[in-house]
Amino acid sequence: MAYENTVAPGGPGVEAPLPAPWRHLRLRRPGPADHLPVLAVVDSWWGGLGGAEGARQRALLLPRLMFQHFGASSFLVTSDAPPSADGHTGRDERIVAFLIGFLSPSKPDESYIHFVGIDPAERGRGLGAALYERFFAYSRAHGRSVVRAITSPQNTGSYAFHTRMGFVTEPGPKEFDGKPVQPDYDGPGLDRLSFRKDL
Questions:
Q1: Is 192 helix (H, G, I), strand (E, B) or coil?
Q2: H or E segment at 116?
Q3: How do the pLDDT tens digits run along the chain, 199 residues long?
Q4: Taking the model in full, what pTM does it have?
């Protein structure tokens, strides 16, 4: 996997290195060569949820075009692979986390977080929040004042995380467990919670 598009130090919160305790990790922009490696870890991180059909659905949410056209607004966190038995330390990478987001081309005040994944071994320590804050800074630097995201009504962990990050759930005509839902948002029967954060 190539090391192009390394995120260089400097810049107000956008290009700065990751904070402790992740300074040993590398932050860079994803590119087309990262597409299949990211799909592989996503399937592993989700524990094979849904079997082959679940893997297919996740792949549809992360098509190659996201890596071809939205790399500049997205982030990939990697770690060098551990040394082999003979002590060789190659330039292979281990994907630790990623955030795929973009600046809306239709709504010049808005940006959108499309998909985020964190290695289960790294969850609960603030790495996801650090990536979100990085994306907020990127959005502000490009004149955006609103960030949007969605999740499924059943994903209570995602709902709790977005609420902690300052997102509000937009009103909807339907409810699920007391939360407003946008019915058929992603197609028939695919209801979603719609989040908004004002920067």
A1: strand
A2: strand 110-118
A3: 333 444 443 333 556 788 888 888 989 999 999 999 999 898 888 877 677 877 788 888 899 999 999 999 999 999 966 544 444 434 577 999 999 999 999 999 999 999 999 999 999 999 999 999 999 999 999 999 999 999 999 889 999 999 999 999 999 999 999 999 999 999 998 899 999 999 9
A4: 0.86
Give the chain's largest Cα–Cα span.
61
Tell me the C-alpha to C-alpha distance, in Å, between residue 143 and each of 89, 137, 140, 168, 176: 42, 10, 5, 21, 34
Q: Put residue 76 in one of left, alpha, beta given phi > 0 → left and psi -120 to 50 → alpha.
A: beta
Q: By the 8 A CB rule, do 51 and 9 touch?
A: no
* 85-to-29, 80, 82, 89 alpha-carbon distances in Å: 30, 15, 9, 10
Rounded CA gap, 57 and 150, in Å? Answer: 16
Q: Are strands 110-118 and 146-151 parallel, antiparallel or unpaired?
A: parallel
Q: What is the dihedral of CA 119, 121, 123, 128, to 10 degrees?
A: -40
Handedness of CA 54, 173, 166, 154 (dihedral sign): negative
Q: What is the DSSP letter of 92?
A: -
Tell me how far apart the alpha carbons of residues 18 and 6 are, in angstroms, rounded to a whole number: 12
Q: Is the dihedral of CA 13, 129, 115, 64 positive or negative?
A: positive
